[in-house]
Model the fold of this input.
Amino acid sequence: MSLDQVNAFYEVLMSDQAIYEQYHQKCCVKGLFGIWDWDKTKIVHFASTLGYTFTEHDLDEAWFGGDPGISESSLNLSEYQRYMV
Done:
C-alpha cells in the first residue's frame, strides 16, 4: 500500500509542474560539485502535505527496488577492523 502511495505521489509530481517546482525547492539542495542532494525526510513531509502517507524506507524501496545499499546497521565493523591491524 505504501509503495502505491509513493508511486501516486510521483505521478502527481510528473503531471503538475507547479507541484514539482515546490517539491524541488523544498526537498533538494545543491551540494558539493553541483550534485543535487534529495532529503528523504523533507520528501516524506512534503508528500504528507499533499495527502500521501509513506516512510523513508518506502521511498528507498521505490527508488532502489528494496536495496538502498549498505546501511550502517548491516555493517559489522569488527570484521573489518581485524584486517586493519
